[in-house]
Design goal:
Chain lengths: 108, 156
């Protein structure tokens, strides 16, 4: 399984929703790591620790956005993407975005 | 006339009884002390968390109603992360879902502040009567309510 450490492989200061704001945005993270993994079904583990904090817009665009972009179900998403964090709340928030995006795919 | 000497067994049994009694009383006192410490810690931490939530509310309203400021964004992200972490690590009983409502309220608070009109989406100033601000105020109130419920349950 490929290991991705957000702080080391992306940035310690993730910010923003869209790439137009820079390469530390949720969209940039999604396109760099999540979408390729989901398209190739290559399992990845994302270590979320070591970062100052994540704005909800970053997380929603990265994780919810990858479900919208690849049209995978939340179940399939979590078969491919494994989350690692010392904060259960952070993981819970991300799961919520993935599930919400999956629900919207089904119900339009 | 000389008194009969106590048998060895007669001297040991009362000593064992005293030792067991001391151990049981000591264990109960320790458990009581731990429970009291846990309650006091939670009460103090909840008071601090309510103050933090209130301080974040002021900062969030100021952030959304003034020009974009990346230093304030980092401060809000960091403060919101800390508040969730502090709730997660409150002293627990065996019930792992004990603080779930407070944690969900912390997530909702964070979403209200950083889910919209935040970082790159902060393109214009909000008025203090904007619905985004009202949602933040409501989420702050809900978080404080859940925190106070935790404190209240601790003393039931």
């Amino acid at each position: 399984m490929k290991q991705i450490n957000v702080a080391k492989d992306f940035t310690k200061f993730p910010s923003g929703r869209y790439m137009r704001s820079g390469n530390t945005s949720g969209e940039a993270f999604r396109e760099k790591f999540l979408v390729p993994a989901l398209r190739s079904r290559q399992e990845i583990e994302i270590d979320l620790d070591g970062v100052l904090g994540y704005g909800s817009s970053f997380l929603e665009e990265a994780f919810g956005g990858s479900v919208r972009a690849t049209k995978v179900s939340p179940e399939e998403f979590f078969r491919v993407v494994h989350l690692k964090s010392s904060s259960a709340t952070l993981v819970s928030e991300i799961r919520q975005y993935v599930k919400d995006a999956g629900r919207r795919l089904i119900h339009g | 006339m000389a008194e009969p000497a106590l048998s060895a067994g007669g001297a040991i049994w009362p000593s064992i009884g005293i030792a067991i009694g001391w151990y049981v009383v000591h264990r109960f006192a320790l458990a009581r002390e731990r429970a009291r410490f846990r309650k006091d810690s939670i009460a103090k931490e909840i008071t601090d968390l309510c103050a933090s939530a209130s301080s974040i509310l002021e900062k969030a309203v100021a952030y959304h109603c003034t020009e974009r400021d990346t230093v304030k964004e980092r401060d809000l992200n960091h403060s919101l992360r800390r508040i969730a972490l502090r709730i997660e690590y409150l002293p627990r009983n065996k019930d792992i879902l004990e603080y779930n409502d407070a944690l969900n309220a912390a997530i909702a608070y964070k979403q209200a502040i950083t889910g919209i009109h935040f970082e790159d989406e902060h393109t214009s100033l909000l008025k203090p009567d904007d619905t985004v601000i009202a949602e933040i105020q409501l989420a702050a109130y809900n978080l404080e309510t859940e925190l106070l419920k935790v404190r209240s349950k601790t003393f039931q």
